[in-house]
Protein 1
Amino acid sequence: MATDDDTPDGQTRRAILNAARDLFLKNTYANISIRRIADHAKVNSAMIAYYFGSKSGLFREMIRSYLESNIKRANASIGQVDQMTLQEFMRNFYRTVPTELTHLVIRTMLFERGELRDWLLENLMKPAFNTATEIAKDIVDHSGQPINPLVLRTALQSLLVAPKLLQPILMELHPDEIDDTFFDQLAELNALLVAQTFDLE
C-alpha cells in the first residue's frame, strides 16, 4: 500500500523539506530565499507556498520534523523515570538531532529577534523546559534529596545539549572515534551517573 510519501504530492513535499534541512542548517535564515530552496529541491517555488505557506512555515516544519519524536519521548517518560528510560532518551536524542540544528536553535535564541525566535521560544523552548522540569521533579521526589529541580533540570539539559554543541570540535580532535558507538556509550554513562546519584532503578 502506498504511503503519503509515495505519492507525487508526498515526494514533492519531502523534497522541499529535505532541501530546507540542507540549507537552513548550514546558513542563517535571512540568507536563504524561497527561490534557493526551490532550486535545491528542483521544484517550482510556488510549491513551497502550497505545502508550507511561507518560508517561515517551512522553517517551523523543518524544526518539528527533527524534534517532535524527542518531545513525545520526553513527555512519555514523565512519572516513570528510570535508568533505561533516560539512556534510551539520550541515545535517541544524540542519534536523531543534527549538530547543526542544535547550533541553529541556540544561535537563533541568542542573536535573533522577531517572529521566528518568538515561535521557537513558545513552541520549542518552553514546552521542552516544562517537560524537563517535570522529569527533574520526579527524580527529586523519588530520591528524597534536597536538590532544587531547576538545578537538576539544567544539569540534565547540559548532558543532552553540550555534546551536540561540541561535536564538531570533538570530531576534529578525534576523527576516528566520534560516531554512533561513542554517543551510545555516552548515553549509557550519563544515564548511569544520574541513576546512581539519585538511586534510580
Protein 2
Amino acid sequence: MSKSLGNGIDPLKIIEQYGSDALRFTLSFLSVQGQDLNIDTKDFMFGAKFANKVFNASKFILSNLKGRLVLDSLEFDDIDKWLIARLNATVAVIDWSFENYKYNEATKAVYEFFWNDFCDWYIEISKINLCSDDFDLQNITISKLIFFLKESLLIMHPFIPFITEEIYSKVMSLKDILALKKYPEVTMQRDFGEECQQFNLFKDFIISIRTLRSEFNIVPNVKINVALKFGNTFQSEKYFRRNEYIAKKLINFDCIFYNENYENMIGVPNVNFESFADIRDFIDTDKELTKLSKQLEKYEKLKNVTLQKLGNQNFLSNAPDEIINFEKLKLEEFDSFIVRISNYISNLKKSSY
C-alpha cells in the first residue's frame, strides 16, 4: 500500500463491508512477525467466513435447545475428553504465542480448534446422539454442546470480540459479560493424553475410509463393509469397538471386521493399524488398475525430479531455506502418494483373482 499511489485500504470501508471482527481476525491471522503483509480487500472474506462459521455453529446448537434440558452436572466420555484436551492445548499455544508476540500463531490455533475440532468432528458426532430416541442422551448431548460452545466463545473472544459477546450475552441470555470473565488456563486436569491419542487413531481410520471412497468415486450413501487389521501391541481395540456406532454413521458401513475377512479388501496403511474397505462390487478393477498405474508413473517421475534437485549442491547452496524445505515437503508428499497407490494396486490385483 502506498499513499502516493492511492492504493491504501480504508479500514472503515472494510468494517462496513465485512465487519470489524473480520478485519481484526484476518489481520491477526496473516500478520507474521518481522514480515511485510501484502493484502487485498478480498482477503478479509477469510475473517468474514470464520465469523459466519461461529454464528452458524452457535445457531445450530441453540436451535436444538427446544424441548431439551441443560444439565448442570456432566460426566465426560472418550470424545469429550479428547475435545477438552484439544481445548487445553489450544490455550497453551495461545499463551505462548502472546508471550512471544506471534499473534498469527495464536489466531491459527483458535481457527483450527473451532473449525476442525469442534465443528468438523465434535458437532458432527453430537448430531448422532441428538437424533437418538433416548431423551436422556439428547439432554446430555445438548448440555455438553452448550458447555463447549461457552468455552470456545471465551478463547475466541480476543480475536472476534463482537460476535462472541453477542452470542454469549444476548443469544444465550447470559447475564454476565464475556469480556470480564477470566481467560482459560492450561491445567494438568485437562490433559487427557491417552484419550487424545486414541481418538486421533479413530479419526485416522474414518479419514482413511473416506479418502478411499473419494479416490474410487464411491458415493457416501452406498454402504460398504470395512475391516481393521492390527497387531498384538495395538491398545485401542476396545476404544474402537466402544465407539463403533460413530464410525458407522460417519463412513456408512454395513459390517466391520476386526483382524478378519480383510483379504479381498482394499487397504490403507495407518500408524499401528491398517484400514480396509470392500469396494469390489462398485468399481471396474481393470480400469482402476490402468488409472492407478498411470498415477504411479507420474508421481515416480515427480519424485525423481525432486530428488535430483535436492541432490544438486548448487541448488542447496544458493536456494533460500524456505524453498529447500518446500522441496523436501514435496518429496514426502510424493512418497506418501507412491506408497498409497502401490498398496491400492497390490490389493486390487489380489482381489481380482
